[in-house]
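Continuing the batch. This is chain 6 of the set; chains 1 through 5 are on the previous pages. Same settings as before, nothing changed between runs. Recording input and output for traceability.
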Amino acid sequence: MTPINDTTSTNNTKDNTMTTKFHGVIPPVVTPLTPNGDLDVASYEKLINRLIGQGVDGLFVLGSTSEVAFFDDEMRGRVLSEAKRIIDGRVPLLAGVIDTETLRVIRHIGQAEEIGVDAVVATAPFYAITGPTEIENHFRALHEATDLPLFVYDIPVCVHVKVPVDLMMKLGREGVIAGCKDSSADDVSFRRLALANRAAGSPLSLFTGHEVVVDGAFMSGTDGVVPGLANVDATSYVAMYKAYREGDWETVRIEQDKAAELMEIAFAPQGVVGPAAGVGAFKTAMQLLGIIETNTMSVPLPTLTGDNVERVAEVLRRVGQLA
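Output for chain 6:
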C-alpha cells in the first residue's frame, strides 16, 4: 500500500488535514505457526520478504487470513511486532484491531500505535446485536481514540451485520474513516459504494477482499485489492493492478483468470469448512511450495492432512506452480 504523497490525496483526518492515500495490492498476511502453535518467525520473515519482493504495495496483518480471531493479546502483539521489524518501513503496515466491542478494539488500537503501524482496520462490533446507530457510535469512538487512518472491515459473514453504504459515506465525508476493505461478497453494494464515493469526491480509499472477481472491482474504480491468495503468489495481482492503472483491460482479464485458476486450491479440501478450508489451503500450498515450514492451523481449526494435501497439490500442479 504505497503512500501517495502528492496533492491527489483526499482522505481527511479529524482536523481535515491531508493524509496518506492507500492503494494497490495489500495482502492479508498468513501467520505461519510451528507444530505446537507458536509463531514461526523464520517462515514469517521469508513470507513477508517474498511478498515485498513480488511488488506488493502494503501488508495487512492480523486480519481473518492471519487467524486473528484465534490469537490472545500476547500473540497479537508478537505477530504485529515481528511484522513491523521485518517490513522495516519498506511498505505501509495495516493492523487488524478486530474484537467484539468498542473498548476492546480501542485497547488493540493502543497496542498497534505503540508498535508503530500506518493504519488500523476494524469490523463493526459483534456478539451483541447491533444496528446502524451502534455501528456509527463504534466507529466514531474508535476515530476519537486514535490519529491513525481507520478502515472499516466490512465482513458480514463473520460479524453478522453489513455496514450500510449511506453510513460508510457519511463517516467518510466527515473524516471519521479513511476507507473500507470490502469482504462482503456483495458486488452490487460495492458498486453502489464506489459510485457514491466518486460522486462525493472520493473521500474513501476502497479495497476489495475478493480473489476471483477483482477485475469487476477495478471496473468499479476500487483503489486496490486485499487478496489472501497473494500469500501463495502475488504476481498476478501485482500485474493486474499495474494493467488496471494503465487501462490494459485484456491483461487484467488474463491475470484474473490465472488467479481464479489458482484459487481452486480453496475449493479442493473436503470435510472441512471456513478458515480450515480457505486459509488451510493457502497454508498447505505455501508449505508445498517451500514458503513456510508447516501448514499448522490455530486451535481448534483442523490442519489439512492426507488426501486434502494431495488435492491442493493437484491444483498447484495443474496451474504450473508445482512440478
